Amino acid sequence: MSNTKVSMEDIVSLCKRRGFVFQASEIYGGLAGFWDYGPLGVELSNKLKAEWWKAIVTDKDNVFGVDGAVIQNPKLWEASGHVAGFTDPLVDCKNCGARHRADHLAGTDSTDLVELTRLLKDKTCPKCGKKDLTKPRTYNMMMKTWVGPVEDESSVAYLRPETAGSIFTNYENVRETMRAKLPFGVAQIGKAFRNEISPRDFIFRVRELEQMEMQYFIKPDIQESTYQEWRDFAWQFLTKNLGIKESNLQWHEHAENERAHYAAAAHDIYFNYPQSFKELWGTHNRTDYDLSSHQKISGKDLRYFDEQTKERLTPYVIESSVGLGRMLLAVLVDAYTEEEIKGEKRVVLKLKPELAPYRFAVSPLLKNKQELVEKAREVYQALKKKHGNVVWDDNGNIGKRYRRQDEIGTPECIVIDFQTLEDDTITVRDRDTTNQKRVKVSDIKES
Fold first, then answer.
1. Distance (Å, rounded) from C-alpha 28 to C-alpha 426?
2. Over 70: is that where the pLDDT of 26 sits?
């Protein structure tokens, strides 16, 4: 089945049915833009984070990790431009009061208010159908809170809208403690919060998200080659490390009116989500904007001393940024397959084996035969000790177990039957082909 036929309803149903993602506060009716990750969602997301961290930090000699606080000094967000400019265009329906993202309603990437006013002239409200919309206006998406016992202007703070802020403010700390020389990067995985006007498309556009970001500090004269290197890294990670099909990916270069005013270049990798090709991973040339802004507001000298030229310079920054939720959604959509096997339809997640929530599922052929259960437990414990992510499954008949494990992406199912007791061999069934083979128990234990 091609991904163009995978609906968001298919993915949402699978995620709820098999324990990947649940609606937050579901028993109270939920809360728009917030989602809870279930047992299998946690396993998959942890593997995605570990894969990204290994590729971008562990495997590189000049990229270092940090874990910044969610709440920072408000001056950080003033210096970064978020307090003044972290906005989306908003329109209200005068008839029903519904609020909508103006650019989404107009079907454009432009956020220019004049252009949006023109495009929305004859648009109707998606909720009530009336042609009675206000003129577009800007809306700040920062989530505000207060620090301390008194809620007044002096105690205002914000939940961070992105993880990059504490990377920039820790740039000098990392450089000094790690004795880092340009070029070097600082990476972080963490939560960010955006008060989206209209969260939608399941976990694609949410109000609480987890980001994986890396800021790479360089001398300005290598910006073009470095920018291309990190573009290549993003593409290779998605196709090689995660196994996403190239046919589901495409590049989108930001037009001048799309990218931030300080950016010299910006490219997104778009993925073929059920709703259309949408942004997944961004690579941006942020020039020296961030360090220059923080240097100006904080008064701290953030310039880099070049020992060769004996000059001080403000490093340029190449950013590589991806949202964990969007990556998880892309992996699920890419792997989701409906097919017919011997006249029977099945849903199977053809995930890379390394990413699957469980590497093996172990079952006794019959759960009421003690000798089979004991042998199956022995195999299960041996595999679990070595691989960790192994599941015990004796619920229902073998056919139902296979279908259940297919849906959650388990690469191989191991069945202990009566022949096992005779010759110490077991049945190993492959998820993708459904082929079965018999192997020695000792071989599977050493796999």
1. 47
2. yes
**How buried is residue 111: exposed, middle or buried, by Cβ count under 10 Å (0-12/13-18/19+)?**
middle
430 neighbors 378 (Cβ within 8 angstroms): no
Instruction: State the residue range of the domain holding 323.
Output: 3-79+163-333
Q: How far apart are CA 92 and CA 98, in angstroms?
A: 6
pLDDT, mean over the chain:
94
> Is 138 inside any structural domain?
no
**Predicted model pTM:** 0.91
Average pLDDT estimate for 84-110:
86
318 and 376 inside one domain: no
* pLDDT tens track for 356-402: 999 999 999 999 999 999 999 999 999 999 999 999 999 999 999 99
Burial class (CB in 10 A: 0-12, 13-18, 19+), 41: buried
Q: Are residues 197 and 308 in the same domain?
A: yes
pLDDT tens digits along 199-225: 999 999 999 999 999 999 999 999 999
Can you tell me which residue has the tokens 């995605």? 48
- 363 with 394: CB under 8 angstroms? yes
Residue 67 CA neighbour count, 13 Å, CB half: 2
- Specify the number of domains making up the chain: 2
Encoded tokens for 86: 């972290």
| Cα dihedral: 161, 163, 166, 172 (round 10) | -140
Residues 304 and 245 reside in one and the same domain: yes
| 328 in the same domain as 362 | no
- Residue 244, classed as helix, strand or coil, is coil
Q: Report the CATH number that the domain containing residue 20 is assigned in CATH.
A: 3.30.930.10
Give the three-class secondary structure for 311: strand
User: Is 2's pLDDT higher than 70?
Assistant: no
Does residue 121 register a pLDDT over 90?
no
Q: How far apart are CA 139 and CA 329, in angstroms?
A: 27
Q: Based on the domain organization, do 293 and 375 belong to the same domain? A: no
pLDDT of residue 86: 74
| 326 and 374 belong to one structural domain | no
